[in-house]
Design goal:
Elements: H1 3-15, H2 20-30, E1 37-42, H3 47-59, E2 64-68, H4 78-81, E3 89-93, H5 99-109, E4 113-117, E5 123-125, E6 135-139, H6 148-153, E7 156-159, H7 171-188, H8 197-211, H9 215-232
Helix pairs in contact: 1-8, 1-9, 3-7
Length: 235
């Protein structure tokens, strides 16, 4: 039996421990989840703002968030995040000499274009960002913006149109506006932005284990039983 079938059987087993209402909610939300767009936070030192970005990512269906910790360690603010960190996937970069470059290169190797969210000579408006390739939106610190390393290595720059005297927005507000605009455009675009069947299965397994008491133990027992049946059959 293929590994995909095994994972699907595991998911079915785990979901049998989940309420009908939660099952329906999982199915509804997973259809709107995407990895086509991802978010990068570089050295955010105000946890309430970073946590608010996580909430926006969850609300607009962004599954992956990349956290760069060069100087500032990111800590979830439970009063702001309201459980959103439970449903999104955090990728942290904190062990390398230059975590920013590691993150950017990792994303590029996976086929992402990386856009810095900052006014720049060669920037484009968020509503004009190309959707023909999967991409990451990179946000810098509230006071200093993106680092020089980030500015020198991103593929392009994007900004939010502003018409008042104020020249900048809070990072959490900026992220929410960007993700709303992109989410709206993706929904009507002829682009395969949803998770693959395999990605949906793996994400649902993760979510199921988060809401089931002893979910990891149930998974372990199921896999051990499958292995025992497989070896016992003489295959």
């Amino acid at each position: 039996m293929s590994n995909n079938n095994n994972r699907e059987q595991l998911l079915k087993h785990l979901l049998s421990f989940v309420s009908e209402n939660k099952n329906e909610l999982f199915e509804k939300i997973i259809r709107e989840r995407t990895k086509y767009v991802t978010v990068v936070l570089e050295d955010i030192f105000q946890p309430q703002n970073a946590s608010a970005v996580l909430r926006s990512c969850d609300v607009f269906g962004i599954q992956d968030i990349h956290i760069i910790e060069n100087r500032n360690k990111y800590n979830v603010n439970p009063h702001v995040v309201h459980g959103a960190s439970k449903w999104v996937t955090l990728h942290k970069y904190k062990k390398q000499k230059n975590n920013t470059l590691t993150c950017i290169n990792t994303l590029k190797e996976k086929g992402y274009k990386v856009y810095g969210t900052t006014p720049h000579t060669n920037d484009c408006l968020i509503q004009d960002i190309p959707l023909d390739n999967k991409f990451a939106l990179m946000f810098g610190t509230e006071q200093e913006g993106l680092s020089k390393v980030a500015m020198d290595n991103v593929d392009g720059f994007v900004k939010i149109p502003m018409y008042g005297f104020t020249e900048s927005l809070n990072i959490s507000v900026s992220a929410a506006i960007c993700l709303y605009e992109i989410s709206k455009r993706l929904k009507i675009a002829d682009i395969d932005w949803q998770l693959t069947p395999e990605e949906k299965t793996e994400q649902l397994i993760i979510w199921a284990k988060k809401v089931i008491k002893s979910g990891t133990l149930i998974e372990k027992e199921f896999l051990e039983k499958k292995l025992s049946n497989y070896t016992g059959s003489g295959n």
